[in-house]
Amino acid sequence: MPLPSLSSGLSFGTVPATVAAALILTPLVLSRPASAAPERIGGAVLTPVAIETLPGFPGSDPGAARDAFRRVCAAPPPALPQPAGVAGDPEALAEACAASVGDVPDAATFFRDHFDAFRVERPGAGQPGFLTGYFEPELDGSLDAAAEFPTPVLARPDDLVSLGPGETRPGLDPSLRAARATPAGFVPYPDRAAIEDGALGARARPILWLRDAVDLLVLQVQGSGRVRLPDGRAVRVLYDGRNGQPYTAVAKLIVQAGHLPLEGLTLARWTGWLRDHPDAGRRLIRANASYIFFRLAEVADPALGPPGAANAPLSPGYSLAVDAGLWRYGLPFWLAGKLPDRAGGEAGRLVIAADTGSAIVGPARGDLFVGTGAKAGIVAGNLRDAIGLVVLLPKRNPAQERAP
């Protein structure tokens, strides 16, 4: 369950439009399709669109999107259940999942047969949607504390209570997304500064040690990572809960304080600034009240990313983090516009909702998982673009619709 990407915290004001003709999608005007989609969701209008009119559909590799869809279908239920009212009929989506198993038609035909397309439009908005990227960092670390690795990565404490979308506890500020269970009831969980100062006591259980607080921050911002151990092995460090306090992008604070300009800001540049200015850097890091806890896991398939909030391994370039309070995991989305990495100049791409993040809010907001390692980090950091967003909602009984 990655948190907002490094790039998602750098969104100041207006973003230059990068989407032109690819956003001109021909709407259907006869009737709403068989998916019986809501007309609005989260303040956005859902306008029916003929799939065959989407420029570039189904993209350069629809098979990769179908594989990502299958992974979400096969995953166990999310740790935090989604609200009942999210878009995407669960029964119809289950039918599409069943139809994706085994010997099925080519991927493009599968998506055309089992889904109806709806353009996500925000009335009065200057841009149709906004896309950022996130990645899985690769860091150096140790299972034991050492002079080279003094910074602990903490396991989930046993008094942490995670709250799902819309869930709260008596007496707790509804904006908080976690609570601390005490004999007297629920209270806010300590913030980052308090945790660093020892507020967890014996409940602060290190599972791993990193070289410094900057590496820990990168791991926490991205929500997961791979760590290379001194013996050459690699382990995966996975999100296992957060303290529920508000997230503040440290890179944004650096820019706001005038230490670095926004233009040309990269992961390497702002993390380098933090290391070059340890005292000021520590103050800025502690200003981010959010704190993430982790667990260890094996790297089962090096080609795939960590499990997202949908519990499925993330597919580089094809897994999308969405607002989990609006969209059901497993829904395909068509991203219309210029996209990063291996697809080059494609006009759009099919991706699958498989994750969420605390900064991924609203119906036209997406965060694309782009892969693992330093190169993926550069791609993620550069991805801050206006994008056309089209959701594909599952049809009801598509086989019956095709029958004469």
Order of helices and strands: EEHHHEEEEEEEHEHEEHHHEEEEEHEEH
**DSSP, total strands:** 19
Please give the share of residues in helix.
10-25%
Main β-sheet: number of strands, strand sense, barrel status? 10 strands, mixed
Radius of gyration: 21 Å
Span between N and C termini? 44 Å
| Strand neighbour order, sheet with most strands | 1-2-3-19-15-16-14-17-4-18
The chain-level structural class is alpha+beta
Q: Outline, from the CA principal axes?
A: globular
Q: How much is the average pLDDT?
A: 86
What proportion strand? 25-35%
Query: Low-confidence stretches at least 5 residues in length (pLDDT < 50)?
Result: 1-32
Number of helical elements: 10
Summarize, please.
This protein is an alpha+beta fold.
Describe this structure in words.
There is one protein chain. With about 400 residues, this protein is of the alpha+beta class. It contains 10 helices and 19 strands. It has helices at about 60-75, 90-100, 105-115, 190-195, 215-220, 250-255, 265-275, 280-285, 375-380, 400; strands at about 40, 45-50, 115-120, 130-135, 140, 150-155, 160, 180, 185, 205-210, 225-230, 235-240, 290-295, 320, 330-335, 350-355, 365-370, 385, 390-395. It has a 10-stranded mixed beta sheet with strand order 1-2-3-19-15-16-14-17-4-18. Strands 6-10-5-11-12-13 form a 6-stranded mixed beta sheet. α1 (about 60-75) packs across α3 and α7 crosses α8. The termini are far apart. The model is unreliable at about 1-30 (pLDDT under 50).
